[in-house]
């Protein structure tokens, strides 16, 4: 899918180039990144701008309610507990494709833009990237699997509440940045007034690397864990994209850069490519699953074992 570049997107791009985000780094990122290979639509299928969290309507009110509960409950201690529990990978054994199919039983209440089954979103994202970056097969597969962690909502995976699975993510253990969506609801989060956690660096040190930063628990962190622990051969940039794709404060607002190391700076360039496809490919354009399945099966075989522990 190739859509036309609209003004807001260009503005955003200009911004990023000014902030040096899209400057090519030793040929690491293909050229169409800087020149704008992907063209994003202005409005979603509901006729609103994408991620218009401040609009007042019924759908957006329930999204705000989602974030209110999310922001109160995602604490440092909660994430620590969840990571310990899910690190065990003792919930299920299945292939990547089986998980894609399972995901169709999932509804994401945090998403103001998506009205399609989850597998459509995975394939729309992957196919859009594939069109613009035909040689980066690892990125196609990354797109296909990036939201698989949403199976945490299903009974076999602990049936976690929405606030513990979906939505934007943010670091714990240091101050919440004001750019995080519906920031005001953090005021009732127990970590908000904890002096250990409410300074700019909190428990971290400058440049410590995002790998060492605890982020709110959800489908990103879980899928990252599953891919890594099952020995995927996907490159580090893929794992970075999976783990931080919901980290809008970082990849879109530019917050928390002081915690990044050099590796993160490189990986962030890929994430900034990815996020556009993740967000703007959400549309009613259906992908023929059976037609594209053989291609994705070949990628799964290349980068993953046949069965994974979840
Ligand atoms: O509503 C969404 C959705 O749940 C995503 O899958 C995600 O990655 C987000 O960042 C988010 O805000
Ligand atoms: Fe996601
Ligand atoms: Fe997504």
Write the layout of secondary structure elements.
Blueprint: H1 7-18, H2 32-35, H3 58-73, H4 76-86, E1 93-94, H5 96-102, H6 118-132, H7 137-145, H8 219-229, H9 236-244, H10 248-251, H11 262-280, H12 289-303, E2 308-309
Antiparallel strand pairs: 1-2
This protein binds 1,2,3,4,5,6-hexahydroxy-cyclohexane (INS) and fe (ii) ion (2 copies).
Structural features, described:
There is one protein chain. The chain is mostly helical and 310 residues long. The chain contains twelve helices and two strands. It has helices at residues 7-18, 32-35, 58-73, 76-86, 96-102, 118-132, 137-145, 219-229, 236-244, 248-251, 262-280, 289-303; strands spanning 93-94, 308-309. It has a two-stranded antiparallel ribbon with strand order 1-2. The longest helix is centred in the last third of the chain and has 19 residues, at 262-280. The protein starts with 6 loop residues before the first helix and ends with a strand. The relative contact order is 0.17. The structure holds 1,2,3,4,5,6-hexahydroxy-cyclohexane (INS) and fe (ii) ion (2 copies). Residues 121, 146-147, 278 line the site of one fe (ii) ion.
Bound ions, cofactors and other small molecules, one mention each: 1,2,3,4,5,6-hexahydroxy-cyclohexane, fe (ii) ion
Structural class: mainly alpha
Q: Spatial order of the strands in the main sheet?
A: 1-2
What is the terminal separation in angstroms? 32 Å
Which range best describes the helical content: under 10%, 10-25%, 25-40%, 40-55%, 55-70% or over 70%?
40-55%
Mean pLDDT: 88
Q: State the order of secondary-structure elements, H for helix, E for strand.
A: HHHHEHHHHHHHHE
In total, the number of strands is 2
């Amino acid at each position: 899918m190739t859509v036309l570049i609209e003004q807001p997107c260009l503005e955003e791009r200009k911004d990023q180039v000014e902030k040096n985000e899209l400057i090519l780094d030793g040929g690491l990122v293909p050229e169409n990144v800087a020149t704008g290979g992907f063209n994003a639509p202005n409005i979603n299928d509901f006729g609103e701008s994408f991620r218009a969290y401040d609009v007042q309507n019924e759908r957006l009110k329930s999204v705000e309610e989602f974030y209110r509960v999310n922001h109160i409950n995602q604490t440092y201690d909660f994430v620590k507990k969840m990571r310990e529990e899910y690190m065990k990978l003792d919930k299920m054994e299945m292939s990547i494709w089986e998980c894609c199919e399972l995901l169709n039983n999932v509804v994401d209440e945090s998403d103001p833009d998506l009205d399609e089954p989850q597998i459509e979103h995975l394939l729309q994202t992957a196919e859009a990237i594939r069109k613009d970056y035909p040689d980066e097969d690892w990125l196609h597969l990354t797109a296909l699997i990036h939201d698989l962690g949403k199976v945490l909502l299903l009974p076999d995976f602990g049936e976690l509440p929405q606030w513990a699975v979906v939505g934007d993510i943010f670091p714990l253990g240091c101050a919440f940045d004001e750019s995080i969506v519906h920031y005001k609801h953090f005021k009732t989060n127990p970590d908000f007034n904890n002096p250990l956690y409410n300074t700019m660096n909190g428990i971290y040190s400058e440049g410590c690397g995002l790998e060492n930063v605890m982020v709110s628990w959800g489908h990103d962190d879980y899928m990252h864990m599953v891919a890594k622990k099952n020995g995927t051969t996907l490159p580090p940039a893929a794992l970075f994209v999976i783990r931080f794709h919901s980290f809008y404060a970082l990849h879109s607002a530019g917050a928390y850069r002081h915690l990044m190391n050099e590796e993160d700076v490189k990986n962030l360039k890929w994430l900034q490519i990815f996020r556009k496809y993740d967000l703007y490919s959400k549309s009613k354009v259906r992908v023929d699953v059976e037609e594209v399945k053989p291609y994705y099966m070949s990628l799964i075989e290349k980068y993953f074992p046949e069965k994974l522990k979840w």
